[in-house]
């Protein structure tokens, strides 16, 4: 009962006053798994988290890229190791979980690996695989990895999982049905998992990023001149999610989009339909 009361009090205090700050990061000496650490947001997050004194376990498919990141972290005095795994391969994820747990429980997991597809439904009629492959990497992969690591987190009564999702889950932007639906599934999974694991001090953050300038967005011409965060700015948000453990990290535009969708859904549809027309499919999407 006391712990039931103390947790909301601590949360209210934290919400009103902000987290207690000290020179030491809560990540110091902890084990942090980051997926998709071979490029973009995941790579920048790996450097940032290692600089906070954590031991970073990097996961992605391209071993040579992971080795490059590990070497850079070690050269900077940090601790890191690489796990070359295709996260859409269920057996490989089970092997990864075993390998990670053989060295003890993981304290933090960043589910960042993912893929985006921007393609209108009109061009998707014969492309069920777009829906399947986005679900495979953006939903089933992080759920499988989380489910593998969660029991040990609950047992040690500490753990935090950060999911890298998108402001699209709030906006519901046209041409992103496959991608955003898979991220929305993960966003919802985390909210429910957070409720079930609450008593065991295992928490979840969904970061709903706006545009970040990474290799993922390069093929989309419409984004070439759009304002975007750098991977380093995105990594700072990942560090904040790990250290402060908020429920969500949103952008102002994403939050406004969410409210707009709630209070004026039809007007919102109309505006997004106009937006859809204004920005056609890219050359890459037409291939
Ligand atoms: N960039 C944006 O504007 C933006 C906005 C909102 C959310 N996000 C999300 O941010 C996350 C990171 O994306 P990014 O922008 O940094 O793009 P990125 O540079 O393309 O990074 C994607 C990462 O995912 C890994 N990955 C992809 N498929 C994988 C698989 N089957 N198994 C293991 N790893 C896999 C890639 O590594 P390998 O190729 O080596 O496997 C790579 O490290 C994604 O979840 C994305 O949806 C991005």
Oligomeric description of these chains: single chain
Number of domains: 1
The value of Rg in angstroms is 19 Å
What is the succession of H and E elements? HEHEHEHEHEHHEHEHHH
| Spatial ordering of strands, largest sheet | 3-2-1-4-5-6-7
The total of beta strands comes to 7
CATH superfamily: NAD(P)-binding Rossmann-like Domain
Secondary structure layout:
Blueprint: H1 2-17, E1 31-35, H2 40-51, E2 55-60, H3 63-75, E3 79-84, H4 90-101, E4 108-111, H5 128-156, E5 159-166, H6 168-171, H7 177-196, E6 202-209, H8 231-244, E7 248-249, H9 252-263, H10 265-278, H11 283-286
Parallel strand pairs: 1-2, 1-4, 2-3, 4-5, 5-6, 6-7
Helix pairs in contact: 2-8, 4-5, 5-7, 9-10
This protein binds NADP nicotinamide-adenine-dinucleotide phosphate.
NADP nicotinamide-adenine-dinucleotide phosphate binds near residues 41, 87, 114, 116 and 215.
Q: Would you kindly provide a written description of the structure presented here, covering whatever features stand out?
A:
This protein is α/β, with parallel strands linked by helices and 287 residues long. It has one domain: NAD(P)-binding Rossmann-like Domain (Rossmann fold), CATH 3.40.50.720. Helices cover 52% and strands 14% of the residues. The chain contains 11 helices and 7 strands. The protein has a 7-stranded parallel β-sheet, sandwiched between helices. Helix 5 (128-156) links the parallel strand 4 and strand 5 (159-166). Helix 2 packs across helix 8. The longest helix is centred in the middle third of the chain and has 29 residues, at 128-156. 36% of the residues are buried. The mean pLDDT is 93. The chain binds NADP nicotinamide-adenine-dinucleotide phosphate. NADP nicotinamide-adenine-dinucleotide phosphate binds next to helix 2 and strand 5.
